[in-house]
Specification:
Blueprint: H1 3-10, H2 23-29, E1 36-40, H3 46-53, E2 57-62, H4 65-78, E3 86-90, E4 106-112, H5 118-130, E5 132-143, H6 147-150, H7 164-171, E6 176-186, E7 195-204
Parallel strand pairs: 1-2, 1-4, 2-3, 4-5
Antiparallel strand pairs: 5-7, 6-7
Helix pairs in contact: 1-4
Length: about 210
């Protein structure tokens, strides 16, 4: 889907995604000390907003201007004086990404369900790694290829699904080391089986 198609999807009255964070973002990022984070292809900003509420300096980026406006509106209602800074920007995951406000690179770059064909996915991941400081983290959560046969929900196009090994292959030539790489189950209300997600945490190393 292009940005115009996503604009149309985000123009409805209801949230496209849930208001709360992804369960694996909450699990893996929750214990981290607040820093600066870039949420790539963030949609309505649910993960970046949750992090801002916990003191992170959060940048939410999406190529849909409608999604970005929705994220700004939600931030205006949710974030109080004790929250960290939050900004929502229009940015394409395949192009150079917004730099960290400090100029030193982000402490965390998040990819949550950016489902692209392999060549585009590799390009997007490389863009994300570019803007992380050495020692910073890149967290990837995506619908797994195994989900088609063994899980539930998610895209039905195998060309945009990635198992953990696929994510590691995309990262093989990038300046990162693997912290963890797992195929995880995610409970879906009303479904008779869980969804299967690839959850990969990387750490940026010096070039």
């Amino acid at each position: 889907m292009d940005s115009l198609a996503w604009d149309a999807r985000y123009s409805g009255s209801d949230l496209v995604w849930s208001a709360g964070p992804n369960t694996f973002v909450e699990e893996l990022v929750g214990p981290m000390a607040p820093g600066s984070v870039l949420d790539v292809a963030a949609g309505e900003g649910r993960n970046a907003l949750w992090l801002a509420e916990r003191g992170w300096d959060a940048t939410s980026a999406d190529f849909s201007p409608v999604a970005v406006e929705r994220a700004r509106d939600i931030a205006g209602r949710r974030l109080g004086a004790d929250a960290g800074p939050f900004r929502a920007l229009v940015a394409d995951a395949l192009e150079p990404l917004p730099a960290a406000p400090s100029g030193d690179g982000y402490d965390l770059v998040l990819f949550a369900y950016l489902q692209l064909p392999d060549a585009q996915w590799r390009r997007a991941l490389a863009r994300g790694v570019e803007v992380v400081r050495p020692g910073g983290a890149v967290l990837v959560v995506c619908h797994a290829a195994r989900n088609l046969a063994d899980g539930v929900g998610g895209p039905q196009d195998p060309g945009v699904l990635h198992d953990p090994d696929d994510v590691l292959a995309a990262a093989a030539d990038l300046p990162v080391e693997v912290v963890s790489s797992d195929l995880r189950e995610r409970v879906i209300d009303g479904a008779d089986r869980p969804a299967l997600d690839a959850v990969v945490l990387l750490r940026r190393v010096a070039d």
